[in-house]
Design a protein that fits this description.
It is a single chain. This protein is α/β, with parallel strands linked by helices. The protein folds into three domains: about 250 residues, no CATH class; about 90 residues, no CATH class; about 120 residues, no CATH class. Helices cover about 60% and strands about 5% of the residues. It has 23 helices and seven strands. The strands form two sheets. A five-stranded mixed beta sheet has the order 4-3-5-7-6, covered by helices on one side. Strand 1 and strand 2 form a beta hairpin. Helix 1 runs antiparallel to helix 5. The C terminus is likely disordered.
Length: about 575
């Protein structure tokens, strides 16, 4: 008997999740190694490089990143791309998580959420930064998704890697644990309506999740412990990885009594500038959920509020801590937006007309905002621009009331949602490209607060050319660096060179190349020529006036403070060495 099997067809839903994942991969990995590493990134990349070279450095509190990246460096070589590989992969993997929670969110909302996580500016920025912050978010979320899908072994593996991601993982675990305690011991057992409307029936009723039975819990713990042991020691090759894991707990606890330097108002600016779409519709969705006592919305609201409060009260907080609250906020926004996909008997062309008018008004408002920063020098022009802005807002509101009166309230409501959401979506995508560093020229972003090594490529090109001129091939000169520069990014840039870092130069020393701070004079026996380079550009966020903030929001322009270094090269390395000497400070 001839048996033939029909190949399984990919559903539209699976195709959309796959598309979201591919989109997440593209925007995270494209030009990933173009921007130089910052000092913060290079600090961790250098430790991973030492492990890959067979050294036994004292590991920092992010063993997952260090050990997994060391494998990359050992196999593929050390590069900016490989230094950022695991955070980018974890950020892309986060996009798959909503597929496991479709019964809670609804199918449409889960697809919305997948695309939102793929394009969110904060997710993009942290996914393209070397370090464990995005790895902690991604692996914890993947562990929860695997548990929800009853893949208990995978849940243990993901959870084991997450525990190795350093203080950020403990921050996330604290927020999740605190939310769980509130839900279970302060009224969370009350019966609430948990029906999520879907496109295939009256809804999906989700009962409260039972406490996991013994076998699944044991399976997850065993696989998690095994992962913790094997990955935490790099398959027993780096035993001190486990001590680094224990040190991450100490570092997280130490953060509670270490004063921070980031003011609290920065968090509000980050949310308003980068996530207006998530914030607006997330709050609307939460209000609707509270009114209807929807269990999923209440849980997501509590989770986002918990993480927001933790980000505020944790003394060493930073903008990246807000990424934990963005996941539940985007979930609320996705649930709310998915409600507007069922037109029913509504007249679609009227909705499209109202949406078009709303979108046109929002474009006009944005164009008016663009002209406001330059008008601060003339009070008369500024007043007229502000009146124009206020008039556009009033006309938009009036047009919505008119649409509701002529047609019906539902058409006006849906039209303003579609028009406003589309305008905010375009803004979110634009902000995401800026935050990811995919636009030229590179702009300063609140998600990336570390100073940028803007002339790293020019510096490495210069030393390569000097080496090639004098020795016939690159990376053949010895370089001495002053420790006063205190720049891991510089050491990472010169990772393939013979570099010596010293506190002070001996008077009888004569290294081929010397790198000093700009305000330090070189006093050696040999003659040297010097050229300055910008080592760090630090944006001046604090003390910025209102017009300065507006200028940054619309143009991404902000005052910056520059710190210079000077590259000194022996005079005889140059082709025109016999023509004369130039030993003056640049």
């Amino acid at each position: 008997m001839n048996m033939m099997t029909t190949p399984r067809r990919i559903t539209l839903e699976q195709g959309l999740f796959s598309l979201a994942f591919i989109l997440a991969l593209v925007v995270r990995f494209i030009s990933l190694g173009t921007q130089p590493l910052t000092d913060r990134e290079a600090k961790w990349a250098l430790q991973a490089l030492e492990i890959a070279r067979g050294s036994k450095p004292l590991l920092g509190s992010q063993p997952a990143y260090l050990l997994l990246t060391a494998i990359n460096f050992f196999i593929f070589g050390a590069s900016n791309f490989m230094a950022r590989f695991w955070p980018a992969l974890a950020g892309a993997g986060l996009v798959l998580v909503p597929a496991a929670f479709q019964k809670h969110l609804g199918r449409k909302a889960a697809i919305f959420l997948a695309f939102a996580l793929a394009l969110d500016p904060g997710m993009l920025a942290l996914s393209r930064m070397a370090g464990s912050q995005m790895m902690a978010v991604g692996f914890i979320a993947l562990s929860l998704a695997a548990w929800q899908s009853r893949s208990y072994r995978l849940a243990g593996v993901m959870g084991g890697v997450a525990l190795l991601c350093g203080p950020s993982a403990w921050f996330g675990a604290l927020g999740l644990g605190f939310t769980w305690l509130i839900l279970n011991y302060s009224g969370g057992r009350t019966r609430v309506d948990n029906t999520i409307q879907d496109d295939e029936g009256p809804g999906i009723v989700i009962p409260p999740l039972p406490f996991p039975v013994e076998n699944p819990r044991k399976t997850a713990i065993k696989w998690g412990a095994g992962t913790l042991l094997l990955v935490g020691t790099l398959f027993l090759l780096v035993p001190n990885g486990l001590s680094a894991w224990a040190g991450s707990i100490v570092d997280f606890m130490r953060g509670w009594w270490t004063p921070g330097s980031v003011p609290l108002w920065i968090f509000l600016v980050v949310l308003l500038v980068y996530a207006p779409l998530a914030l607006i519709f997330g709050l609307i969705g939460l209000a609707r959920g509270l009114r209807k006592t929807d269990r999923t919305s209440i849980q997501l609201g509590l989770l986002s509020g918990t993480f927001f409060l933790l980000a505020l009260i944790y003394p060493v907080h930073q903008a990246g801590d807000l990424v934990w609250m963005l996941v539940p906020v985007w979930s609320l926004a996705a649930i709310e937006l998915s409600r507007y996909l069922d037109f029913g008997s509504a007249r679609k062309w009227q909705i499209a007309l109202v949406a078009g008018v709303t979108f046109a008004f929002m474009v006009f408002i944005w164009l008016d905002l663009i002209s406001i920063p330059s008008a601060f020098t003339d009070p008369g022009i500024l007043q007229s621009r502000m009146m124009l802005l206020l008039g556009a807002l009033l006309l938009m509101i009036l047009s919505m009331f008119l649409a509701a009166a002529v047609w019906e309230e539902r058409i006006a409501q849906w039209g303003i949602v579609y028009g406003g959401a589309f305008a905010l979506l375009l803004y979110t995508v634009s902000a995401g490209l800026n935050a990811a560093g995919l636009r030229q020229p590179f702009s300063s972003e609140l998600w990336q607060p570390a100073p940028q090594f803007v002339q790293a490529d020019l510096l490495i090109k210069t030393v390569d050319e000097l080496s090639d001129w004098s020795k016939g091939h690159i990376q053949s000169l010895d370089i001495t660096i002053s420790s006063d520069l205190n720049s891991p990014a510089l050491l990472w840039l010169l990772r393939n060179w013979q570099v010596e870092q010293v506190d002070a130069l001996a008077l009888d020393a004569s290294p081929d190349l010397v790198i000093l701070p700009q305000d330090v004079e070189i006093r050696l026996a040999s003659a040297y020529r010097g050229q300055d380079f910008i080592l760090r550009k630090t944006p001046v966020w604090y003390g910025l006036p209102l017009d300065g903030w507006l200028r940054w929001i619309v143009f991404r322009k902000i005052p910056e403070q520059s710190e210079f270094l000077v590259l000194w090269a022996q005079d005889d390395l140059f082709l025109d060495a016999g023509a004369g000497l130039d030993t003056s400070t640049p």
